[in-house]
Design goal:
The chain is mostly beta strands. The chain contains no helices and two strands. Strands 1-2 form a two-stranded antiparallel ribbon.
């Protein structure tokens, strides 16, 4: 690659450098509402992983496996808000 050629060039989601990317909104985080835990009012969150078992008959390779699903929970009390997890995935 030539000197500086292609470095720092922003491309759109489709990977086509000919089309300019769509303008992004500038957000001021100080003006956005903070998400609070419904259970303890904490504002701190952590990502954990929930696993679903995939039966062999539904697995692409025909073997029983596990499907990891990222979940966000309150860092203080461990509450998983419905905002962060579809009801279909709740245990």
């Amino acid at each position: 690659m030539g000197k500086g050629k292609g470095k720092g060039r922003v491309i759109g989601m489709g990977g086509n450098p000919q089309q300019p990317p769509q303008a992004q909104m500038k957000l001021d985080p100080t003006k956005l509402p903070t998400v609070h835990c419904e259970n303890c009012d904490s504002i701190f969150w952590e990502e954990v992983t929930m696993f679903k078992e995939v039966p062999a008959v539904q697995s692409p390779n025909g073997q029983k496996s596990m499907l990891p699903i990222p979940v966000v929970r309150c860092a203080e009390c461990g509450h998983v808000s419905e905002k962060f997890l579809p009801k279909e995935l709740l245990p």
